[in-house]
Amino acid sequence: MENGSSLDASGGPEHSVSLLNCIDLSSPDIHNSVSLLKQACLDSGFFYVINHGISQEFMDEVFNQSKRFFDLPVSEKMKLLRNKKHRGYTPVFDEHLDPANQIHGDFKEGYYIGVEVPENDPDWHKPFYGPNVWPTAVYCNGTCFMNFINLFELLSVSKIFCLDGGKLWRNITARHYAEEIDGRVLLVTHEVAKAVARIVALALNLEIDYFDRQEMLGKPIATLRLLHYEGRISDPVKGIFGAGAHSDFGFITLLATDDNYGLQICKDKDAKPQQWEFVAPLKGAFIVNLADMLERWSNCTFRSTLHRVLGNGQERYSIAYFVDPSHDCLVECLPTCQSQENPPK
């Protein structure tokens, strides 16, 4: 049993909303940022990041193109079905994240984009590396949808998800880039995932660039996933969910959402009954959550928290960016997270 959290008819939560820390990546007060992040990682493993350098206009365009893709007929989307490298389209009910409590799969569909390497690349055989499944330009009512290759190129401008010579993503590099917004050029110095990883390192009493190492996030496994939740109403008591309860398995996840509620977190998965709290959408922010690998790295000091999505009858769109270390990374208890009194678990 659980606390029965639900959404009202307007899409707002009937029950509690989690108060998450908000970390300003443009703030010069790094000590305050580290303090806020550490508090969040000890409490819920969820927090917001703002002023990350990605324009709202750009993100609005990405959401617009995502909606256009999911509006395609199912028959067209099924031509792009996910391949063995976990790239491409996943239909409604394809994922079953909480089989113990769900009567069927998730009421969501998705589209995976990942690190693309050619077949002659030495990394091609590794999991999550390989060819993406790209649709060609399609037409609807005389309007040409943007080819998703062009969308990926748009994403590369942001330096969150960018291709390296068409082969690998340089998503963990810090460099200036320019983006034209309303006739102005905005110089951005922060790349979101690296900025967050560096604050995490400081919060764990490590060197600021600890996770920048080649075998860690120098050549990461990075996956971008567009998500669409159908306009169905969830009922936890009956086992009906937009996305079943789960924790992410990697390092960190960055999530951009539309304005609709739906995401919930459970800070104590062992509580009876479980207490679920909504995470409020925050315009212009990324919601960041820690994943299982970072919990293991930190000797369970930092938390990878159970989360799920409830639907209220409104369509909901989100974009998740999963950041995991290199295939060659040895994951073992961090030196600052163990002692004689607290040996590696």
Please characterize this protein's 3D structure.
The strands form five sheets. The protein has an eight-stranded mixed sheet with strand order 1-2-16-13-18-11-4-3. A four-stranded antiparallel sheet has the order 12-17-14-15, with no helix packed on it. With 345 residues, the protein is of the alpha+beta class. Helix 1 (30-43) crosses helix 5 (192-203). The protein is built from seven helices and 18 strands. The protein is 19% helix and 23% strand. It starts with 21 loop residues before the first strand and ends in a 21-residue tail after the last strand.
Task: Round the Cα radius of gyration to an integer and report it.
Answer: 20 Å
Task: Give the overall form.
Answer: globular
Largest sheet: 8 strands, mixed
Order of helices and strands: EHEHHEEEEHEEEEHHEEEEEEHEE
SSE-based structural type: alpha+beta
What is the total tally of β strands? 18
Runs in which pLDDT lies below 50 for 5 or more consecutive residues are 139-190
- Biggest sheet strand line-up: 1-2-16-13-18-11-4-3
- The fraction of residues assigned to DSSP E strands is 15-25%
Distance between the termini: 30 Å
* Number of H- or I-type helical stretches: 7
Portion in helices: 10-25%
Mean pLDDT over the full residue set: 80
